[in-house]
Hints:
Blueprint: H1 2-12, E1 20-22, E2 28-30, E3 32-33, E4 39-40, E5 56-57, E6 65-66, E7 74-75, E8 85-87, H2 120-126, E9 133-135, H3 138-144, E10 152-154, H4 156-162, E11 169-171, H5 182-195, H6 209-214
Antiparallel strand pairs: 1-2, 3-4, 5-6, 7-10, 8-9, 10-11
Helix pairs in contact: 3-5
Amino acid sequence: MGYLKKMDIFVSELPKLKTKKRSPAGTLHPIRIGLHGRRIIPNAYGTESNEPTYGKRDPIGTQKFIPMSSKQKRYLLEEQEIPAAWYNIVPDMTEKPMPILHPATKKPLQPEDLYPIFAEELSRQELNAADRWIEIPEVVRDQYKKYRCTPLVRAYELEKALDTPAHIYFKNESVSPVGSHKLNSAIAQAYYNKAQGVTHITTETRAGQWGAALS
Length: 215
């Protein structure tokens, strides 16, 4: 912020240009061009505003800008910090889920029972109850770099509404190309099918996000 303040002082001392701009009240005010083309425009009260151009416009719609809060809301990892493994929660569950039964034999499903409809590696992962961490292939991690890491967001407004001392965070997956988390799984599924030599994939979708992700 110290640099911004010094920059504002420098910008405010630049000579005025002859360009005019009509203000909301209908009068003409001179425009001054600041560093990187930033405009310094008098506000509706006739006093010049040379505040930084971050933040939001004030309620009456003038060119004055209101600085944003200094509280951090989003937390982002760097590309090199993208996890190298998926977390499998089943090994850490004290009460394990009941086994999936084969519809014909009524016996617990085995990975090979899923081979006709899923890639073999996906079938093994689906029924894996022993490995806490499953390695993410490097090719998949490289594709994740196109839109990850997605932000972890501090929910200050929810904390205030609940009147709680707890810190509440949510993961915003809506910033992915398909607007949801489903691309995270779709990329991996496409990768494992391609690695097995599968050239066509059929799936089902409802709202459309999953179909768009797999496409």
